[in-house]
Every structure is written in structure tokens, then in C-alpha cells.
Amino acid sequence: MTPLDVGVVGAGWMGHAHARSYLRVPHHYRDLGARPRLLAVADPVADLREDAVDRYGFETGLDNWQRLVDDPRIRVVSVTTPTFLHAEIGQAVGAAGKHLWIEKPVGLSLDETRRVRDAVAAAGVVGRVGFNYRHAPAVVKARALVRSGAIGTVTHARFRLLTDYAAHPGGVLSWRFESARGGDGVVGDLVSHGVDLVRYLVGEIAAVVAEGGVFIADRPLPSGSGSHYEVATGGPQGRVENLDHLSALMRTDSDVPVQLESSRVAVGNQNNYGFEIHGTQGSVAWDFRRMPELRISTGTEYQNQPVTDTTVGPGDGDYGRFQPGAGIAMGYDDLKVAECADLLSAVLGVPGSGLGATLDDAVAAAAVMAALNESVAKQAWTTVPPTAG
Ligand SMILES: NC(=O)c1ccc[n+]([C@@H]2O[C@H](COP(=O)([O-])OP(=O)(O)OC[C@H]3O[C@@H](n4cnc5c(N)ncnc54)[C@H](O)[C@@H]3O)[C@@H](O)[C@H]2O)c1
Fold first, then answer.
1. 95-130 pLDDT, tens per residue?
2. Residue 388, domain member (yes or no)
3. What is the pLDDT of residue 389?
């Protein structure tokens, strides 16, 4: 086993998910030959970093991410801070010649995302972004089905990312609701995942038209940094500065119309993420909450064509790395383990799933998000800007 020294910047939800993933890679991917060692976690909040050190066995906790990036022993760095810090830290990681695993969205803008991509490319190191849903074995199977022509030629599709983490009017005004720290709200937070899935499953997005809304205009100020699902009552309130909801129609470069709706305030929807893709001879549908299942319709009957509920199993994506037989549920954290294994295989130069999203994928998604934001502002169809250069 090759020891790989790792640092994690940010000890919040994603910091924990990344730390657990490094530790679990040798359990599921022994043949990779990688033994990640958690050297340092950096977070300015003492309680959080001490808790992470205690839980996962980091050698040290630091109050300053620069010290982590400067540690010559560390070869791989996870960036899991609030979004506004991603570009600065991501570029510093690249400049230090370390491999980068960075959460989505990589930057607050297309320009920031490009800068991180370019720093990593200039250093010749590996970069991966946390578009985890593409690692779900059912999503991998759906992609293979679409590419094989099993549903005919793709004609139209719908993608949804509907959830309720911000639906409570007392949900606190964390960094997520500020444009300077959280960016464009639901666009970077959830739509980014949807855009990645559209690109992965249907094709490159050429043009978009979108409408956005804010349904809870003011929220209570948090007492601390404010966690994702924290609710408060009373006290002073502050203004929400970015979108709660986005509704978009997009056109791929092969002229497939794709609807995408995303909301962080959808009462009654908890992580209701998924898609339905229609072709001339069939369809395929997936729901994240029923992760191993795919609803598939193929054949030549067109009307009243049967729909089959299929359960993925060994042979579909990385499913066999986690469970020996079909129908044993995988979870969200498993997707992060698969993502981590893809990163580490690229770092070591050994064969991996090759399924992970690169920083070029992040730039392509950021270009679509820039077009979506522009379309919301001008209320018109908008061409996705080119991402080369
Ligand atoms: N891939 C996914 O499914 C997914 C899910 C949730 C969040 N995310 C992304 O991950 C990122 C973090 O989200 P989260 O939910 O973990 O947020 P969080 O608020 O739970 O955690 C962020 C952590 O960063 C720390 N931090 C703040 N400033 C820092 C600094 N200067 N140096 C080091 N640490 C600092 C905070 O103290 C906090 O512990 C966001 O960009 C978000 O979009 C991705």
C-alpha cells in the first residue's frame, strides 16, 4: 500500500464526508494500493477542527489553511470550505503542486473556476470536483443505456433538484444566502449538480432560458457560522441575497430540449433529485432517494410500452466495490468514497473508474451556470459562453 498524505480544509459537513472517504478507500478499493493518511485538517473554528481530529485521527488541527497547503508532506488537499474561499485555496493548492479534490461549485463565477482549473493544469497535478451523483451506479447504467441507443435517439428530458433545507422561514442566514460568500444560491448549490448530470447523460448545453425567485426574503441571523439545516426563532433578521428557486429550459448542442427545476425551499421534497430522459423508443428515469433503482422502458411498442423497475448490481459502475449482490442499498457517503477512489487512482496513475468530474467539467458547468444567471437577469434565451482558453 502506498501511503498518501492528505489534508482537509474545512471541517463542516463536506469536510467530514471527505475525511471518511479517504479512510474508507482501502476498504473498498484494495487493488488501488493507496493508504491515505490524514495529516491535517484546517478550520478557524476550534471546536470543529478538534472534533475532526478526534473522530478521524488527523495528526494535527490547524487554524490556518495556508499552513496546511505549505506542509511539504501533504500531497492531496480537499477543499470543503464555504464557496467564496474555493478559488483562493484551490489556486494555492495547485501552485503548491498538490493534487486537489474541491467541492462544487469550484468558484463563485466562471472566471474563478477557470483560474482554479488553470492553476492545477499548470502544475500538472490531478483535480477533481465533487459532482458525486455521477458515481451512482444507476446513473452510470443510465448513461450506458442512453449511449447504446437502447431508448432510441434522445428527444427530451427533465431534471429536478428539489429540497427543503431552506424551506423553514427560521432557517438561519448562513453564508449560503449571501452573494459574497455563497454566490448565486440554489444555482451553485444544486443546479450545478443538475448541469453536470445533463452534460454527463444527455450532452453539452448550448443555450438556456431561465427564471429565478426568492421566496423567503429575510432570515434570522445565525448565532455562530450557521449550519446547513439550522433553524432559529426570534432575533434580528438579514436579507437573502441569492436565488431560492430556478426554473430553466436548456437546449443541448444536438438540439435536445431539457427542463431543469431546482429549489432549496420545496416544502415536502427532501433531496428529491433525479431525471427522466425520453428517446424515440424508450425512456429511463432515476430518483436519488431510491438510489439503486432505474425505471426503464425499451422496445418497439411505442404506445403502452411496459416500464420495468430494475435494481442495479455488481457490474454497474462501482456497485460491486460496496455490495456483493443487487438490491442492497448504497448511500450518499458511498458516492464520495467512489469519487475519492477515482481521484486517488489518477494521482497514482493506476486504472480507476474514470468516472469522476474533472476541473474541465467544473468549468463547463460554470459556463452553463453563468448563462443561467444572465438569462434570469435579462429574461431571454442566452448562449452558453465558450470554455476553451
Ligand atoms: N457535493 C455535495 O453534494 C455537497 C453537499 C454539501 C455541500 N457541498 C459544498 O461543499 C462546500 C462546503 O459545504 P458544507 O455543507 O460542508 O458547509 P459547512 O458550513 O458545513 O462547512 C464549511 C466549513 O468550512 C469552515 N471554514 C470557514 N472558513 C474557513 C477557512 N478560512 N479555512 C478553513 N475552513 C474554513 C467552516 O468553519 C466550516 O466548518 C460548499 O461549497 C458546498 O457547496 C457539496
1. 999 999 999 999 999 999 999 999 999 999 999 999
2. no
3. 56
> Is the C-beta atom of 38 inside 6 A of ligand 1?
no
Helix (H, G, I), strand (E, B) or coil at 238: strand
CA of 159 relative to ligand 1 center, distance in Å: 25
**Nearest alpha-carbon partner for 246 in 214, 205, 200, 202:** 214
Task: State the DSSP H helix or E strand holding residue 31, giving kind and residue range, or none if neither.
Answer: none
Q: Is 83 in the pocket of ligand 1 (CB under 6 A)?
A: yes
Q: Is the full-model pTM beyond 0.90?
A: yes
Q: Whose CA is nearest to atom 38 of ligand 1?
A: 12
Domain assignment of residue 74, given as a range:
2-132
Sign of CA dihedral 138, 144, 147, 151: negative
- Nearest residue CA, atom 3 of ligand 1? 132
- Is 104's C-beta closer than 6 angstroms to any atom of ligand 1? yes
Atom of ligand 1 nearest to the CA of 336: 1
Residue 86 CA to ligand 1 centre (angstroms): 9
The CATH number given to whatever domain includes residue 307 is 3.30.360.10
Give the residue from 132, 157, 187 where a domain finishes: 132
Q: Which residues pair with residue 38 across a beta bridge? A: 6
Number of domains in the chain: 2
Sign of CA dihedral 322, 327, 333, 338: positive
* 229 Cβ closer than 6 Å to some ligand 1 atom: no
pLDDT digits (tens, 9 = 90+) for 330-367: 999 999 999 999 999 999 999 888 999 999 999 999 99
Q: Is 48 in the pocket of ligand 1 (CB under 6 A)?
A: yes
